[in-house]
């Protein structure tokens, strides 16, 4: 597979693959590159919702569109529409759906309607960020557990717009968003690399420390995770598709396009339960 690296360790633009007709070898190459480069960009694609779902099924097992938000239509329950005219923004750093016991392995995002300017998306490399922490901070973070809570962002939506009944996730219909604990440092199940696994969008606090200690630790990790040297930024064009490894990244969509419309369609791949650093 041919790609242009966007930084020494992180991100790539992939060339020469038509995502509407990937071969088995293409799928294997994409999966390997996704783990290695963490976020991939494919230009000049012609996918529609059917094609996006078909692609996702080749790459992995699809989830519902979201634990709480319904699919784009009845024929595509796997497709999550992020529409700026319906509060479909993502302008806070986050990793997708970490408020569930099994967050997605990865996501595939397709540009549908783009504003004339703006609306770029930024990704942060959680593994590079972990590696560049000082040793004493790494040793502290390795031992910590955090709570992730989807109620702040989606509790009202579940109660008021879905009548308390969300989608099926991991074999159960979501009727409430119970806060869930995950390790602050996640060990990638395929490479064994460690990465920062907290995010401002869904992490509420650190377990077993005071409120002030929790806030200080999280603020430190957020600031470090989103340092410029840990980030790649993508300027969207019509036909663009992005894929990312949800186990090793966080992302942020710029909300800088005023009243212009921005619509993105996302699908997610079923993941596993995050595993932390083994106790020494």
From TrEMBL:
<dbReference type="Pfam" id="PF02668">
    <property type="entry name" value="TauD"/>
</dbReference>
<dbReference type="GO" id="GO:0051213">
    <property type="term" value="F:dioxygenase activity"/>
</dbReference>
<keyword id="KW-0560">Oxidoreductase</keyword>
<feature type="domain" description="TauD/TfdA-like">
    <location>
        <begin position="5"/>
        <end position="268"/>
    </location>
</feature>
<dbReference type="InterPro" id="IPR042098">
    <property type="entry name" value="TauD-like_sf"/>
</dbReference>
<keyword id="KW-0223">Dioxygenase</keyword>
<protein>
    <submittedName>
        <fullName>TauD/TfdA family dioxygenase</fullName>
    </submittedName>
</protein>
<dbReference type="InterPro" id="IPR051323">
    <property type="entry name" value="AtsK-like"/>
</dbReference>
<dbReference type="InterPro" id="IPR003819">
    <property type="entry name" value="TauD/TfdA-like"/>
</dbReference>
<keyword id="KW-0479">Metal-binding</keyword>
<comment type="similarity">
    <text>Belongs to the TfdA dioxygenase family.</text>
</comment>
<keyword id="KW-0408">Iron</keyword>
């Amino acid at each position: 597979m041919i790609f242009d690296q966007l930084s020494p360790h992180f991100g790539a633009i992939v060339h020469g693959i038509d995502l509407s007709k990937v071969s088995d070898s293409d799928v294997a190459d994409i999966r390997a590159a996704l783990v290695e480069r963490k976020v991939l960009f494919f230009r000049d694609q012609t996918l529609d919702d059917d094609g996006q779902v078909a692609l996702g099924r080749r790459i992995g097992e699809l989830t519902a569109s979201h634990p709480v938000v319904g699919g784009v239509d009845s024929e595509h329950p796997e497709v999550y529409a992020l529409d700026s005219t319906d509060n479909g923004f993502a302008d806070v750093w986050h990793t997708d759906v970490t408020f569930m016991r099994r967050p997605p392995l990865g996501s595939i995002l397709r540009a549908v309607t783009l504003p004339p300017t703006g609306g770029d998306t930024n990704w942060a490399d959680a593994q590079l960020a972990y590696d560049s922490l000082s040793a004493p901070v790494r040793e502290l973070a390795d031992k910590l557990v955090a709570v992730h809570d989807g109620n702040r962002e989606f509790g009202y939506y579940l109660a008021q717009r879905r009548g308390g009944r969300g989608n099926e996730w991991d074999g159960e219909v979501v009727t409430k968003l119970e806060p869930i604990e995950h390790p602050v440092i996640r060990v990638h199940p395929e490479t064994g690399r460690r990465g920062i696994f907290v995010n401002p969008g869904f992490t509420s606090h650190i377990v077993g420390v005071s409120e002030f200690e929790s806030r200080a630790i999280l603020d430190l990790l957020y600031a470090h995770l989103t340092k410029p040297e840990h980030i790649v930024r993508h300027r969207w064009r019509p036909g663009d598709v992005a894929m990312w490894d949800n186990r090793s990244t966080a992302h942020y969509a710029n909300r800088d396009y005023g009243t212009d419309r921005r619509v993105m369609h996302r699908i997610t791949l079923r993941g596993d339960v995050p595993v932390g650093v083994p106790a020494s």
